[in-house]
Amino acid sequence: MDTAGLARPTRGRQRAHGRPALPGALHRQATDARQRHALAPLLAAGAPVYEDPATSTRQLSLDRAGFTRPLNEAAVGNTIHIADAARLFRSVADSLALRPVLIRRGLHLRVESGLLSGIDLASDDPGTKMMVNVLATVLEFQRDMI
User: Fold this and answer.
1) 25 vs 12: CA distance, rounded Å
2) Which of 2, 111, 116, 145 is 20 to 30 A (C-alpha) from 47?
3) What is the rounded distance in angstroms from the CA atom of residue 88 to the CA atom of residue 83?
4) How far is CA 82 from the centre of its chain?
5) How far apart are CA 80 and CA 68, in angstroms?
6) What b-and-e string marks burial along 77-92, b requiring 16 or more CB atoms within 10 Å of the CB?
């Protein structure tokens, strides 16, 4: 079973570089469209869709009902697909907490767009672990700059 995960973006606000972000509704629409485009083949195939209305800024993914629901419903060997890693986690602490749970449960977490597209974030090898931790560090820095 493949599941497609969509996350709701934060409301529009000032960006760190000084330009205003899109107003809340437009930002959400644009983000939703990008996520649906990244997950289009799965959506067309009828994969179940789980939406996470929480933001990835401060709350750990394992503490968000929008992510724990597909996590708890997935069986060993299933793949959870997400549009972009930044929609799931934005901290090193979150990635360090999430990966062992996925590995222990025998689940796969595949990113469909962005820097880590096509990579199974739950792969239990040193290279993937390093890449996920580096990306989490960059995303945490980006979050702190917002």
Assistant:
1) 8
2) 116
3) 9
4) 5
5) 11
6) ebbbbbbbbbbbbbbb
Parallel, antiparallel or unpaired: strands 49-52 and 2-7:
parallel
For 79, the domain range is: 2-145
pLDDT 10s digits, 103-124: 999 999 888 887 778 889 899 8
CB-based contact 109:120 (threshold 8 Å)? yes
Q: What is the pTM of this model?
A: 0.69
Contact 83, 5 (CB under 8 A): yes
| Rounded Cα–Cα distance for residues 141 and 146 (Å) | 9
Give CA–CA dist 78/89, Å, rounded. 20
Helices then strands (H, E): number in the chain? 5, 4
CATH code of the domain covering residue 60? 3.40.50.1390
Distance, in Å, from the CA atom of 121 to the CA atom of 3, rounded to the nearest integer, reads 15
Tell me which residue of 96, 102, 132 sits closest to 114, measured CA to CA. 132
Whether 20 has a pLDDT exceeding 50, the answer reads no
